[in-house]
Amino acid sequence: MISKRLPVMFLMAVVMTACLTPAAQAADHAPVDVVFMTTPFGTHMYSVGAAAEQVFKKAGSWVQAKHQETPGAMYMYRYMVQNREKMTSGKVPYTVVVGSPTMVGFLAEGRKPFDKTPWPTVKALVPIPAVMGLYATFNPDIKSMGALAGKRVCTGERSRPFQGILLDKPLFGGMGIYDKIKWSPLGAVGCKDALLNGSVDAIPLRFMGLIALNDDGVFVTPKCAGGPATMEIINSGRSLHFIPMTEQQLGITKKIPGALVQRPIIFKKGAFEGLNQDIMGRAGPNGFLCDASLPDAIVKEIVRVWNAHRADFATYDAMLGFMPRTPYPVGAEPNEVHPAVVEAMQEMGLPIPKMK
């Protein structure tokens, strides 16, 4: 009688162990504060940090996310470099910072503008909605990127190189027309006004959206939303033309030493209001970055919560409904990812996205 019941009892024990709630599993870990540093209030990166604090609390995680607003990227990365040893010794909480996988090379190698604060142990951690872009014009004769030679093209302010020259020079320089363009570094709002009043011929439009990889390893976005300046242009009532990029043009950026790599992304028809066909633009995957010294257990718990509670982020900010459907930092090269992220993915039986 006993021998017959043992297998059943053993099976029940296995099932009960597998069904332990996150709260019960968390009892095995002492609570640990982890600071999620972001950009200032009003940015989508601020929203994801504020949401993370609430999501981890709701999840009952032993990782206690603490959101901290900062002045911006340079502050965050300098803090990580200056406080790395204090984190590993327990003098300050472990910290993760918002950023982009495309910036890992800049930070690790100390490329400008990070030459004074190189961070060789930086790693990608988890993703957030991606920033993506298209060029637009009211001029129907501008049908290709090459046609922008000799034209007045708007760009980011000089003080924001990752939205200006670090995007423009590799792309248009690789096409051989960077010096033939009349640049207007006015920023998002200034560019919007300049296009509407006819001061420039074309501007980059910025969107945030859902990013995924198709079977060919190319990024696609089925749904995205423009920022205020972008939406004002789209809703201006004027006939707006989107200028397609090509995979070859964007691929040039991968071949330029030290350049900011720009990933091709296919905006699917209907991805945003007014888009009546598939068109290729560029993608800037985003996420949180961490130091290689961040303990594996913390990394795995962050990845677990990011996966299991993905939908909860959108309850804080609707834009966060564009979270990638994977907790892997989409857009990062394998050597740029914290190794424990890969282990967590394998333990959860989740595939690792394969980029082209």
Word description of this protein:
This protein has 356 residues and is of the alpha/beta class. It folds into two domains: 160 residues, D-Maltodextrin-Binding Protein, domain 2; 155 residues, D-Maltodextrin-Binding Protein, domain 2, CATH 3.40.190. Helix content is 32%, strand content 23%. It has eleven helices and 13 strands. The strands form two sheets. Strands 1, 2, 3, 4, 7, 8, 9, 10, 11, 12 and 13 form an eleven-stranded mixed sheet that branches. Strand 8 and strand 9 form a beta hairpin. Helix 7 runs parallel beside helix 8. The longest helix is centred in the first third of the chain and has 17 residues. The protein is globular, with a radius of gyration of 22 Å. The termini are far apart. The relative contact order is 0.17. The N terminus is likely disordered.
Give short descriptive properties of this protein.
356 residues; alpha/beta; D-Maltodextrin-Binding Protein, domain 2; 2 domains; two-stranded parallel ribbon
SSE layout:
Elements: H1 2-18, H2 22-26, E1 32-38, H3 44-58, E2 63-69, H4 73-88, E3 94-99, H5 104-109, E4 122-137, E5 152-155, H6 165-174, E6 182-185, H7 187-196, E7 202-209, E8 212-213, E9 219-221, E10 224-226, H8 228-234, E11 241-243, H9 247-251, E12 263-267, E13 279-291, H10 296-308, H11 339-347
